[in-house]
Amino acid sequence: MPLRLILVTVAAAGALAAQTAMQHSDSFPELNLSNLIGPKQAPITGIASVIDGDTIEIHGQRIRFNGIDAPESKQYCDDAKGFEYPCGRRSAEALDGFLAASRPVECTFVTWDRYHRFVGDCRRADGASVAAWMVEHGQALDWPRYSHGAYAAQQAKGEAAKIGLWVGKFQAPWDWRTAHADGAAQSRQALGIMSRKLVAEGGSFSCEPRRYCTQIGSCEEAQWYLQNCSWGGKLDRDGDGKACESLC
């Protein structure tokens, strides 16, 4: 068969195949990148409930701030005088106050994390970056593993000013979680509890202010703090379930 005839036959077959495909194009999904990776998540906007210093909840969706890490809710740090204070709780309270100053907050989707939390870049209604503010004010750390140093400049400012975590000594949140892996599955509830001073109370006992064994009058009181307060575990140094054993 002459080469010209072969080429004409192939071209005709190709044209017929193309025509058939066009006639039945509604039977096939469009093969583009958006179909392969799925629809892009729309931004989430609303009034946020604070879970901890790097996590909020809007409309029932947990949102983790991209590129930063804040102290865990149960984490304690040392202040300038070497005294322990609830830095995780302090970070959450700082975040709550910052968000309350300009509502609502809008979070732009970045990815999903392994806990199926929406990881995003969040801004207040006035456009202020939540993550940048938290890091610059020493209430969270730049997390290079995910941020690639995006908040390094803000962290340098906070450290130089010795504010927030930088006022004393602390363990990076990712290291603290590793060291406390047994309690890593902490129950996290919306932190309106903390920022609005709603405290657990039992008769004459209250979780605020925090107490030390030397300030506690009875075994019963010590056990109540252990069972009901976020800081209660500090009263049980050997982990045997008994708080302030000198009292019991």
Intertermini distance: 104 Å
Q: Say how many strands there are.
A: 12
* Beta strand %: 15-25%
| Total of DSSP H or I helical runs spanning 4+ residues | 9
Strand arrangement across the biggest beta sheet: 1-8-9-4-3-2
CATH class of the largest domain: Mainly Beta
Overall geometry comes to globular
Low-confidence stretches: 3-8, 15-38, 184-189, 191-203
CATH topology of the largest domain, which one?
OB fold (Dihydrolipoamide Acetyltransferase, E2P)
Q: Report the helical percentage.
A: 25-40%
SSE string? HHEEEEEEEHEEHEHHHHEEH
CATH architecture group name of the largest domain: Beta Barrel
Organism: Mesorhizobium australicum
Protein name: Excalibur calcium-binding domain-containing protein
Structure summarized in a few sentences:
The chain has 248 residues and is α+β, with helices and mostly antiparallel strands. The chain folds into 2 domains: 44-183, OB fold (Dihydrolipoamide Acetyltransferase, E2P), CATH 2.40.50.90; 200-248, no CATH class.
List keywords for this structure.
OB fold (Dihydrolipoamide Acetyltransferase, E2P), Excalibur calcium-binding domain-containing protein, 12 strands, alpha+beta, single chain, 248 residues, 2 domains, two-stranded antiparallel sheet, globular
Describe the fold and architecture.
- The radius of gyration is 27 Å and the shape is globular.
- It is of the alpha+beta class and 248 residues long.
- The protein contains 9 helices and 12 strands.
- The termini are far apart.
